[in-house]
Design brief:
By secondary structure, the protein is mainly alpha-helical. It is about 55% helix and about 0% strand. It is elongated and about 65 Å long. The structure holds heme C. The site of heme C has 21 residues, from helix 2 and helix 3.
Amino acid sequence: MNIKKKKWPIYLIAGLVVLVAVVMLVLFNSKNTPAPTTLSLTEAQGKTLFLANCNSCHVGEGRQGSLIAPSLSTTKSDEASWLVYIKNGKGVMPGFHSLSDQELNGLVSYLKAIQKVAG
Ligand code: HEC
C-alpha cells in the first residue's frame, strides 16, 4: 500500500489552515486600538454616520487597519486634511459630497475621539 497517497488530505487540510490564518492576520491585523469609553453627543452622532458610511472600508469602527483601508485611530494626517479627504475622496476612497457641515463636524469629532484613545 502506498503511504504517501493516504496522507495527502492531512497536508491539504494543514495547508488550508495556514492559508486561512495568514488571510485573517492580514485582514484583521494589529492596529486595533481600544474604543473610547464615553462619547459626547457630537462624537456619537459622528460615530453613527461613520458606521453607516465608512465602516465597510475602515473596519472595526475605524480603529482597525485592513487591506482595504488604513486605521483612522493611528493616522498621522490632521483634521484639515480629513475634511478634504472626506469631502473629495482619496485614492480609492469615494468623496462624500452630500454631507452637511454639521455631519462633517460630527465625523471629525469622532475621528478625534478614537485618536485620543490611541494616544
Ligand atoms: C471604499 C472604501 C472607503 C470608504 C467607504 C471610506 N474610506 Fe476613507 N479611506 C479609504 C482608503 C483606501 C484610504 C487611503 C487612501 C489613500 O491614502 O490613498 C482612506 C483614507 C481616509 C482618511 C485619511 C487617512 C490618512 O491616514 O490620511 C480619512 C480621514 C478617511 N479615509 C475617512 C473616511 C470617512 C470619515 C469615511 C466615511 C464618511 C470614509 N473614509 C469612507 C477607503 C474608504
